[in-house]
Structure formats: structure tokens, C-alpha cells
User: Fold this.
Amino acid sequence: MMEKILSQAKKHCAHAELFYEEASSLLARSSLNSVEACKHSSGSGYGLRVVCKGRIGFSYFQRPEYAKHAIREAIRSAKLSAAEGYSLPSPSRYKRRKGYDRRVASLQEEKLVDLLLASMDAVSPADPLKAEVEASASTVRIASTEGMDLESRSTLFAISSIAKKSESFGEDYYTSKRFRDRALPVGASAGEWAIRGHGAKPMSYSGPVTLDQDVIAPFLQAAVVQNANGEFARRGKSRWKLGDYIGDFSLIDDPTIDWGVGTVPFDDEGTPTKKHHIIRSGTLRQLYYDSRSANLAGAKSTGHGFRSSYAALPSISTTNVVISPKHTHKPDGLYVKELMGYHNMNPVSGDFSLDISLAMLDGKPVRGCFLTGNIFDILRDGEWGRTSKTREWLTSPTLSFEGRVVAK
Amino acid sequence: MPVLDKLEKAVTAKADFVDIRASVGFSTHIRLRGGEVEEASFGSSTGFGIRALVGGAWGFAYTSDESHLWEAALRATKLAKAASRKPIGAELAPVEPARAKLASKPKKHPADYGLDEKVALCREIIPKPPKGIVAYDMDYSDGWGTQYYVSSEGAAIEYSPVRSIFGFTAYSKKNGELLRSYERDGALKGVELLGNKRPLLRKAFSNALLLQRSKLPPKGKHTVIIDPKMAGVFAHEMVGHACEGDTIANEKSVLGDKLGRLLGSRHVSISDDPTLPGLFGSYPYDAEGVKARKTRLIENGRVVGFMNSRESAARLGMEPTGNSRAESAAHFPIVRMSNTFFENGDRPVEELFEGTSGIYVHGMKGGVTEPNTGYFQFAAEYGYLVENGEKTTPLRDVTLIGSIIRTLRSVDAAANDFTVGHPGFCGKAGQTAFVSDGGPHLRIRGMLVG
Assistant:
């Protein structure tokens, strides 16, 4: 089927690439004390990228009978596109990675409901508000007229829980490509944070602030995704340039970690993945590229071309991110567990004013106040904690800095 | 066999209730950077989503493959049985099963225009950028197709909407910092949406240049006048989400126990109305086949209604309001808004400024509300300092912070210049919905600006 579509595309246009994705997921979700629903989803589709005289065209479809129309539209779109001198990636050898767990792919609804009910019970003495258990599996195949023909399978298993104690909420989650029965610890931790946050009050404060790993992720996302992105740098939208000093740490983008959420053998363009030191010993050493941005910048793809689905062209995205601090310190002061309003962070200036949903100071809960500061100042001057924790795609210690909190 | 007939056969799976939503859709997307085409793409999709209710518990199965429709219907029932170990006790408020066939009637159907013609139309409306503009981007998308709904109660609806939307971003620079201005329009229309849009795009250019002269706002409590766009955001984000029946049934809304209570000033009347003709958030029937209708949420400061699906209506002892929506056939329907707005006020807009010193706020860049605590933060596109009734210094990075109830009480004037139709995409529980919002200019006393 894929070969036939490619050969038809080749008749009209010299180069074509077909990205096929087949995905299924099974999910059980609770609401308060009950199971809200069990859901199953199964779908597949094709993304067709063609290159005519260095110009890129794209279309997508699900039903094979639409393939002819999709080829025609992709070629038409290539003719309209800017001449970029682009050519599709060539096939390269890649190493297999641990990212497919048969246990996840074969989970049945009864087991998912068992896990869901266990996580709900575990929040006691807090009350369950919402919990979710999801197991999904996907297969990706990339074939092109350049001789590429790759296939990769992966799985993802996730448990999340939100608990409530009057006006206080606590949450926790576990996400991995591998199955682990984490229902009890996830539920218990959500319940514990709901209890700890009970009776929280707003406060104004100036002094040491420590960010939990959960709240560091969006800071790094804003700082790194925007400013180490090769395409943004080319367009003058990045604050950083190679050689800049960022802070007292190294940042490694590592798609090779066994069972990591971002672990993949090759990206969604078929470029083999490998470990990259984005920031080494505090200095920006490497920008992220997919094949298109690399071509425009005269650089080489770093294997970071990912698609949100078969219906989208690849764009730059990170894999697993590991922070390795050079020096470590004991976390201190106000411990910030949950923040909201991340959209108010300015990824260019780095300024932020975020609403504290839950923090602890000397064992007492704090909520209803704003943490203000600048992301880049925090990365440059902050002190990293001693123990690292992996949360989804990020492995990082805590981060402490001199901060300011203003009551609402 | 016609699609509706196939679906009506599959809907007979053994459960207390079954419904199927199916869709066949087509879309184009164009992205111009400067005048150059970065992406011009076409796509097609199909999908079948089956909901089954067994013993008060829901099962849901989705497939993109029509040949697996019957298998998916059986699976939905099996999943409902698994969920019924601790059922949520879901019931559906009764409605008369509807049978209807409807379609949008665009002046220029997107299926009749090639990608090249759409690109040319996009390029035509971009004015020559003035000096000081460093970059500009345009995104245009349209979608058309047919959505089907059948239920085991006998509903059968076929609806063929056409929607288009575009966004235009202009950039200027000051001291190395990129300043961004954004305008968009969208409606239940075809390619004709792009007609007469040069003035709107010119505005994006002039606002990007205005930001170069802007200052940061004075932080603290101020009298704030918000424009119809920001009023729409207040209606949607601040009040609308807190009036969604499922959020209320799950005890997560600060307004959940306030029905009938006087919470706001007499200038505050807010409604949701999917029946307004041609708007981006409009539709004739919701995702449960319930006929769309206007729902008044707040009337002269008093909470008078909530938006409901059939399930949330049954849980709250209310009536379904036609607000059950799903992003696609792959998504389980949940309670969503449509076109949400402050009703018109009674004073000329000039009167809101007369004698006022404070901040004038325009447009919206991002925002978040916690319906359970009632706190919100909205970032405006730009603003002005208002001194003795006059707009003076332009402002950027204006963030409004507050609590729903305190803010509703503090609205002390509403202008009579109501507009509605600012299109957007609302996110909730991992799903996106086409919405729009609006209102008149409003004046709010003692608003915290961050």
C-alpha cells in the first residue's frame, strides 16, 4: 500500500515520504468516588510529504481511497511553497531502544479499573476527586522515495490522581513507556499533598525559594524550547546564541534512556537519535534541529523532528531532558509544589508572575500569592538540589533561588 | 447504504442507551511567513465514536475505520460493563429525539477553491508593511464535511458545517525584544471570510508599532475599562467555565451553590448562545442531538442558569441546554460553551471614560481561571493609561488578576456598544471547541493589575 502511494507520487514529483501512524489507547477515568467511563480509541492515518525542486508540499488522509487526491494536493501545495533547496532525509542506521512493553499493549479494561479503584482508595483520608489510568500503543512507519523504510513501536502507561480535602487539592502522576503498578503510591501522594495543603494561607515573603521538579519542567520548557530551538534562532526569535553562559549546570537531551517518555530510535523524519549536550558545563553548545530547519540554517538535523500526529508536518521538539548540576546545595526556604498561569511567562524576556497553588514554608501550607522573578536569572544564579527525580520527560534536581512572593 | 442507515443498524448494540457520532471531514491550512508560503496543506479524515450506557456507567469506543464500526459498538458496551463496577450513576435527562438534515450555506464554499486560489486570496489582503515591522505571519484554515448523530432513542441528525478562520501576527522590535500584535477573524463561513480584511490587518501592523512606544503598567489596584474583546474573555473564562454543568456536578465550581444568588452588580448579564447565526461557536444541535438554545447565566448580577449536557442536567436536576460538545468523533462529549458574552449595556462608551483615571485594556493574549477557587489571570494584548478620561501612554504586558465574585460586584458601568464574534479555540479536558465571545466596554473598579 505505502509503496504504491509512493510510486504514484514519484510519477508526478521526484521525492516523496509517507508517514504512517497506527495508535490505540485504553483509558479508565474516575470522578469523585465513581468510575466516570472506560474508553478505547483506535485510529490510523497517513501524512504525505513531497518535495518538488526543493519546495515542500504536504497532505494527510486516513482512507486509502483518498490517497490519489492527497498526492495531487500535496504536489499542488509544493508548487506554492517557498523554494528552500530542501531534500528529504536519507536512510541511516539506527539503534533500537527500549520503548515498547508488551504488558502495556495487552492491558485489559478490568485491570485498568482495578488500578483506578486502588489509586482512588489510596488518597484516604483525603477524598478522591479525579483519577485516570491509560495504556496506549502505537506503531510508526516511515517510507520514502529516498529508500527509507523504518518501523518502530512504542507504548505509554500513565496513572494520575487528584485528591481533595475541603478547599485543598493535591495531585501526583506516573508516566513511563513501561508498566509499573504505581496506583497506590500515586494515590497516596495526591492524598498526602491535599492534606498538607489544607488550611493554606496567602503570604508575602522575600528569601530562599525552592522549586519542586514538577514546577521546573514548564520553566525549562519555556526557556529551552524557545531559546535553544535552531529555527527560532535563525528567525531572530531566540535570546541565546551558541557559547552563551546559561547557568551552573549541563542540559543533556537524551533519547536513549531505557523506557524514558521521550525515548525513540529515530525521529518522525527517520533521522537516528542520539544523546546531545545542549548545555555543557554551563554554556550553550548545541541547538535543536529538524531536517527542514537544519537545511535553512546550513546545519545538520539533530534528530528532533517530531509530529503532533500524522496530520502535521514535523517541527522541533525535545526528547528526554536531563539536568546535571556542577555544584549541589541543600534545598531551602519556601518549597513551591504547584504553580498556575505559566502562559504569563515571557520566554523572550524571561519575566514571570505565577500564582502559587501550593507551597510549604516551615511545615505550613501557602496558597493565593504570586511568585515573581525572571527565568534566566534563576537559571544563571540558582542553586540545584542534591537528588534528581524523573518526571515525564525531565530528570532534574530541585532549584533554589532568592525569590519574592506577593500576597493577592 | 447511506451513512445514517449504517449507523442506525450499529446503534442497536445491547445497552441501556447507545449513540454514535460519525464524521467525514476535509480541511486546508495555509501559513504565510512574510509573503512566502511555509505550509499549504490539505487533509481528510473520518471517524466513528460510540457511547454506551450500561447500569449507570459509560463505555466509549472510537475507530477511524468504518469496517470496524460494529466491533467498536460491541466494545463500547463491554467497556461500560467494566466501568459499572463502581458506576457514576449516569442518567440522561429526557429529550425528544430529533431528526434533521442541515447544512451551512457559504457564499464561497472552500471545496470549490484550490490551494493556489486560497493562497492568492490570503496574499491579497496583506497590506504593505509599514516601516518598523520586522516580520509578519498569516495562518488561514478552513474545514468542511458532514457530521452524523444517531441514538438508540431514535435521533438521526446530519449536519454539514463550513468553518473558516485566520490569524495575522505582526512583529516590531524595541531594544532587541520582539513585540507582537495579533488579529483574527473566524465564522461559519467559507472563503468569503477573507473579504474586506485589509483594515483588520493594518490594525495589527499599527498596534505592533504602538507597542514600541508602550510602557509597563503601574502595578496595583486601578479602575480598569475593558474593551469588547476582553469583556468576551471575562464572560467566557471568568464566568462561563464556572457555569458548566459537569464542573458544577463534580463540585469544582465556585458558582456551583450560587444559583439564584445576587453576586454581581446590575450591569452584569451574561449569556451563552449557540444559535447566533454564522458565528464561529454556533451550531444547530449539540453532540447529543439536543437542539441548541440560548442560556442566560447571569441576569443583572443574579446567577440564573448553568450550561448542561443531558447527563449533567440529570445530575443537577436541570434541563439540557444543548451545550454538550466534542472536538471530534474521537472525543467523549463534555459540557462546553458556544458564543458567550456580556449582554449590552446602556451608556455611551465615552461616558465610561469621563472623569476616569485608570487603565484601558484591549484584547487578550492568554489567561487562566481556576473555577474551583474563582481566581483568574488574564494578559491583555495592550492597553493605555487613562488620565482624567483621556487615553494617554500605551501599555504592554498588562495582566488582570482577580476573583470571579469580587470582580462581578465591581463592574460599575456597561457601554451600549456590544459586539460579539471574536473567534477562538477553548481547551478543556484535552479537547478543543470552536467558540466566540463578546460584550460591550465595561468599567471595573479596584481591579488588581500585575
